[in-house]
């Protein structure tokens, strides 16, 4: 899909970002990467209040998240290859503008149905931010530098969903759930202004592919022919399903079952981020010693074990501590599995980074989106449905890993 000289381009472009410019690039891409998780999770502490005000059930309330995740996932399938054709700046800037506008529509939504629609469109516009940030990394860098920067972005992706509810709890102390969406609109507008001023185009005209749907389909066909890539995408998506299931189910489990206030819920949610943050920071050392495949396999096994432990503690009525400890271990495993699965998946597809990142991101958000209403539909006033969903997701991820290992990862 690119010329024979394409691999040299990322190195030349990346060499421009050294010292302070590199730090600025990392901060900007990190901020862009955080927008998606903030959009997903900042309103979580307000879900019970939102449900009551709009007179909605648990399942329909969680569809506000499912619609967003579906929009984020499906939108990437289009925007990813589109950015390979028209460049990165235009999709990013228009996506941020659309995200800001739809955040305001969410704030004004008079019904749960309108909110679901607005969140879905918000996801479609936000998809540009998610896929372009990762594609820019592959535009600028290769090898170790690409892996290092990608790991930082994955850290932001993993940590933001854990910290965002704490921000939401703080905002709820000052405003209502509508105010949270106004803040999200302001964040998107600020990011758009910074991108317009500070982010250059990273995909030169000579490296772009024709804006032809057939060429896009050919790019996806090449990805589907790569068994290793598909397995890593599936593993990453299933681990995200476990994470999103927790993110969606935790407000009801922690507030309704264990009786925590929104503020205390935000604190507990943030405490669980410690394991994820620590393991993400340790991941480079683990990979250097054991290799990404072995580290990923160990992380998935840990996630399965933690999910089974959560089921047992839920059935035995072990209380809040019996919920927090297994979840802490599960999130720590996600902190290791996410960057390694993404790095392995993208390692052989730098020539069509936008398309490869789009399919990876789409799978994560779509499968994660399917997990969220499942938790709500099966809600029985305990953490058992959440634990069962996590066992299913992590168990499938482990089965895929073991199957691929027999064929040599």
UniProtKB/TrEMBL annotation:
Under the heading Pfam families, the entry gives:
MFS_1
Matching entries from InterPro entries are given as: Efflux_drug-R_Bcr/CmlA, MFS, MFS_dom, MFS_trans_sf, Sugar_transporter_CS, Tet-R_TetA/multi-R_MdtG-like
Keyword check for ATP-binding, yes or no. no
Transmembrane intervals:
22-40, 60-80, 92-117, 123-141, 153-174, 180-199, 229-247, 267-287, 299-321, 327-346, 358-378, 384-404
**GO MF annotation terms:** xenobiotic transmembrane transporter activity
Annotated keywords: Cell membrane, Membrane, Transmembrane, Transmembrane helix, Transport
Keyword Metal-binding listed: no
Q: Where in the cell is it found?
A: Cell membrane
**Gene Ontology terms: cellular component:** plasma membrane
Q: Name one GO biological process term.
A: xenobiotic detoxification by transmembrane export across the plasma membrane
The topology of this chain with respect to the membrane is:
Multi-pass membrane protein
Per the database record, which ranges form the Major facilitator superfamily (MFS) profile domain? 22-406
The UniProt entry, under SUPFAM superfamilies, shows: MFS general substrate transporter
Mostly located where? Answer: membrane
Q: Which family does it belong to?
A: Belongs to the major facilitator superfamily. Bcr/CmlA family. Belongs to the major facilitator superfamily. TCR/Tet family.
What protein name applies here? MFS transporter, DHA1 family, bicyclomycin/chloramphenicol resistance protein
Protein's organism: Microlunatus soli
Q: What is the lineage of its organism?
A: Bacteria, Bacillati, Actinomycetota, Actinomycetes, Propionibacteriales
